[in-house]
């Protein structure tokens, strides 16, 4: 059986770099061809920054791994040209049910807000995302964009000075060296680069094990997220059932701390668990199973000289809340344009301090939320369990405690409050689009707001006059002029104007708001653009 | 006459829940039980309304 994750997508090929006398110098080397590394490389290449991705493997990752993708990462993937295949293939879902013991205590609806191109969530196996990103790399290569993907290339050593970093890379033909102005380590939670540089990765270890089983079955369960606390089929523990495309179902069993891993992974034991959960008559094929433990931790800072860290290499969270891959994609989104401005000589190196500040803030938010979910799912003391069970008990009858039921707080994008790049705010405007926030999508004539923004600075005007272009030292900011007279459903007004009569928004290349006003003021916009460029 | 509010009424419920657990951290079961008793008495005094308190007591007692 040949599955998508058994086909080599970027097999090792000898590079001319291996025959060079001295290490060949590159602009950016990305280590790791997972979702984060590939997204970053695609972003850079689309902005004409030459990039080489190295990975010790040559295939998409084994097993489904990350399966829940939230709206903001889908919008980022839209910008990168991969949004459509994700959403076409993915399973859209909104409903969830929570069970306690033998009964359903309540259900919830994510109540997807209207007026967005993308849904709140889709479920899709990580290997599909990787496949689509590799397809996108090939497309960019065909267009002549400067992007290279080297499989079978394992980093053995890294060293750096003020102007760049040097990597030793092992291959089937033996090791060679390359250098780069910037190295971005997207090499996962066990990051070899982080280890080679001797950097700390500290946080909380959760003493628990979870068995994941991805099973293929024809089942008529609805497309909903079902979560059980203390069910009869897994006493004292929790369980999760969630649908993926291709009739693949993700089933998670909490196992507790003292377990025999080998025994738990035996097909007959997984079979016993599945039948206890879903009934003796089910017929299924086990596609993938794994036992995982997790930690909530991050690096102290995400930049170490010329080496940057993004995704799991920089921060790790528990899986409850889908905050791993989703936050890694937001790291890449935050970093690409900053690297480009620096390499173009438009911004000082200190612009990268804002990558650290903004994404550390994001990581802390994710760690806080996922730690709280974990504490609810796995009470760490007798009294915690008593409160947890009381919350669940009351939730069946009373709404009062339902907001405290925590089976995962699903990933929402981070607002960079207090970022050094933020400029002026306008008090009459809505809180959700304040400086630091990701732009909120809205229907606009001919399509969607976010699709009109791309990867450059923009000046969005709503019922306001402004020049077509504003520039600061050769960095151009194009105007996107919109009018409330086209805003038939009122989304623009609701999301961008609030009580203001008109709006002028300075939007960063990663589609976060940098500053906003209720009228155009040339000096103020130029000052804010300079600030958003890290000057 | 007031009646017990069983609608969700706490802002930032996750933060509240985390604080509720944190205040118990490091206590023995007996100490936690005593803390809970003190907490109930303080909250009950704050509510004051006899009708509301009776309804809360019955709601907490009710178990399927």
Automatic annotation (TrEMBL), chain A:
Species annotation: Hoeflea halophila
GO MF annotation terms: FAD binding; oxidoreductase activity, acting on paired donors, with incorporation or reduction of molecular oxygen, NAD(P)H as one donor, and incorporation of one atom of oxygen
Keyword Flavoprotein carried by entry: yes
Ranges for domain FAD-binding: 27-364
Keywords from the UniProt entry: FAD, Flavoprotein
Name recorded for this polypeptide: 3-(3-hydroxy-phenyl)propionate hydroxylase
Keyword set includes Flavoprotein: yes
Pfam families assigned to the protein according to its UniProt record, in alphabetical order: FAD_binding_3
Cited SUPFAM superfamilies: FAD/NAD(P)-binding domain
Cofactor(s) listed: FAD
UniProtKB/TrEMBL annotation, chain B:
InterPro entries attached to this UniProt entry: DUF2783
Domain of life: Bacteria
Protein name as catalogued: Uncharacterized protein DUF2783
One Pfam family matching this protein: DUF2783
Protein source organism: Hoeflea halophila
């Amino acid at each position: 059986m040949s599955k998508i994750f058994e086909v080599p997508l970027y097999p090792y090929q000898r590079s001319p770099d291996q025959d060079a006398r001295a290490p060949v110098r590159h602009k950016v080397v990305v280590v790791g061809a997972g979702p984060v590394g590939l997204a970053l490389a695609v972003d850079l290449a689309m902005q004409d920054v030459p990039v080489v991705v190295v990975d010790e493997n040559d295939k998409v990752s084994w097993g489904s791994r990350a399966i829940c993708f939230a709206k903001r990462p889908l919008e980022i993937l839209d910008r990168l040209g991969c949004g459509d295949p994700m959403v076409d293939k993915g399973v859209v879902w909104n409903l969830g049910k929570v069970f306690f013991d033998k009964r359903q205590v309540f259900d919830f609806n994510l109540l997807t807000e209207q007026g967005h191109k993308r849904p709140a969530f889709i479920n899709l196996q990580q290997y599909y995302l990787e496949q689509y990103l590799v397809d996108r790399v090939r497309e960019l290569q065909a267009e002549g964009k400067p992007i290279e993907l080297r499989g079978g290339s394992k980093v053995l050593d890294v060293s750096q000075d003020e102007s760049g970093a040097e990597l030793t890379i092992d291959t089937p033909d033996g090791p060679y060296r390359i250098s780069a102005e910037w190295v971005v380590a997207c090499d996962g939670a066990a990051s070899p680069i982080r280890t080679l540089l001797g950097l700390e990765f500290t946080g909380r270890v959760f003493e628990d094990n979870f068995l994941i089983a991805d099973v293929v079955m024809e089942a008529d369960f609805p497309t909903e997220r079902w979560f059980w606390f203390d069910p009869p089929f897994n006493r004292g523990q929790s369980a999760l059932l969630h649908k993926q495309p291709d009739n693949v179902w993700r089933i998670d069993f909490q196992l507790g701390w003292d377990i025999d891993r080998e025994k738990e992974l035996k097909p007959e034991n997984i079979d016993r668990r599945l039948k206890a959960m879903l009934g003796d008559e089910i017929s299924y094929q086990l596609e993938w199973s794994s036992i995982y433990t997790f930690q909530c931790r991050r690096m102290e800072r995400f930049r170490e000289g010329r080496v940057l860290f993004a995704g799991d290499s920089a921060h790790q969270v528990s899986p409850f809340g889908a905050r791993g891959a989703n936050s890694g994609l937001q790291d890449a989104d935050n970093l690409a344009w900053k690297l480009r401005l620096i390499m173009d000589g438009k911004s000082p190196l200190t612009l990268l301090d804002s990558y650290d500040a903004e994404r550390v803030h994001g990581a802390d938010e994710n760690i806080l939320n996922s730690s709280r979910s974990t504490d609810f799912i796995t009470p760490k003391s007798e009294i915690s369990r008593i409160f947890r069970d009381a919350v669940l008990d009351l939730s069946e009858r009373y709404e009062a405690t339902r907001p405290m039921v925590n089976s995962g707080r699903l990933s929402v994008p981070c607002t960079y409050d207090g970022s050094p790049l933020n400029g002026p705010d306008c008090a009459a405007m809505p809180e959700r689009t304040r400086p630091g926030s990701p732009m909120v999508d809205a229907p606009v004539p001919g399509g969607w707001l976010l699709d009109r923004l791309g990867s450059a600075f923009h000046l969005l005007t709503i019922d306001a006059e402004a020049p077509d272009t504003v520039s600061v030292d050769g960095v151009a900011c194009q105007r996107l002029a919109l009018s409330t007279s086209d805003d038939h459903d009122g989304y623009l007004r609701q999301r961008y104007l609030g009580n203001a009569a008109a709006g002028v928004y300075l939007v960063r290349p990663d589609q976060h708001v940098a500053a906003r006003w209720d009228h155009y003021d040339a000096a103020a916009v130029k000052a804010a653009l300079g600030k958003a460029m890290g000057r | 006459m007031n009646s017990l509010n069983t609608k969700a009424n706490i802002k930032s419920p996750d933060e509240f829940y985390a604080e509720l657990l944190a205040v118990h951290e490091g206590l023995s079961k007996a100490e936690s039980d005593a803390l809970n008793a003190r907490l109930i008495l303080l909250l009950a005094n704050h509510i004051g309304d006899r009708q509301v308190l009776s309804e809360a007591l019955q709601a907490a007692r009710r178990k399927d």
